[in-house]
Amino acid sequence: SQELEQSPQSLIVQEGKNLTINCTSSKTLYGLYWYKQKYGEGLIFLMMLQKGGEEKSHEKITAKLDEKKQQSSLHITASQPSHAGIYLCGADPATGNQFYFGTGTSLTVIP
Amino acid sequence: GAGVSQTPSNKVTEKGKYVELRCDPISGHTALYWYRQSLGQGPEFLIYFQGTGAADDSGLPNDRFFAVRPEGSVSTLKIQRTERGDSAVYLCASSYLPRTGELFFGEGSRLTVL
Q: Any bridge partners for residue A35, and if so which?
């Protein structure tokens, strides 16, 4: 969706390095979700952020939502090959039921 | 089943043919979504069901696309007179609560229209 822009579009990192993926909206977000997709598979839910300034962590992945609720970042510490895949942010619509997704960030981790 | 099941996993058809894609959501999940994903893109919303009714079908690209969920469980996405531009992965997702972004996705049905 053009309403959620992700950057970078793709990322190649050496195993053990840290990295950050960004998700930006032109509108205030009611709920921001991070998903991971491996090639040929469906999306796997990672985390949900709803409050401005909120931060959540799961294992080596940390996600934050800014105070204005228009930008989120996903940070991976000490990346591993198992982190490789496509990371997608998604958001609740202000009205209706069109839960929508960003453009995706493809992550490659080189052993 | 334990997760969302989609069949077929792969479908190759000729332009102009009719196609049905099936989604079996997680038992007890009342909300069901269909998305379409093209290579290098994020999933594009097609339709949302709450129970048996299509609560939001605003993402269906045209009247060749139709989806049903007659008993509030299994859903079928139907595409008439397929075109090459319909080639994509069609993803189905379900959730226990309505209007939540915590969705459980199937592995998708890859449609190729020749």
A: A45, A88
Q: Which two tokens stand for residue A40?
A: 């040929």
Q: In Å, how far is B42's CA from the nearest CA of chain A?
A: 5
A98·B58 Cβ contact <8 A: yes
Whether residue A97 and residue B98 make contact (CB cut-off 8 A), yes or no, is: yes
Please answer yes or no on whether A99 and B59 come within 8 Å at the CB atom: no
User: Which stretches does DSSP call E strand in chain B?
Assistant: 5-7, 10-13, 19-24, 31-37, 44-50, 53-56, 65-68, 75-79, 88-95, 104-105, 109-113
51-110 of A, contacting B, C-beta below 8 A: 88, 90-92, 96-104
CA distances from B53 to A38, B22, B113 (A): 31, 16, 29
Instruction: Please choose, from the candidates B65, B76, B72, the residue with its C-alpha nearest in 3D space to the C-alpha of residue B5.
Output: B76
Instruction: Measure the CA–CA gap between A80 and B33, rounded to whole angstroms.
Output: 32
Q: Which of A58-67, A94-103, B55-64 has the lowest mean pLDDT?
A: A94-103
What CA–CA distance (Å, rounded) separates B42 from B33? 15
Contacts with A40 from chain B: Cβ below 8 Å: 107
pLDDT tens for residues B77-113?
A: 999 999 999 999 999 999 987 766 789 999 999 999 9
Tokens standing for residue A7? 């950057």
Q: How far apart are the first and last CA of chain A?
A: 32
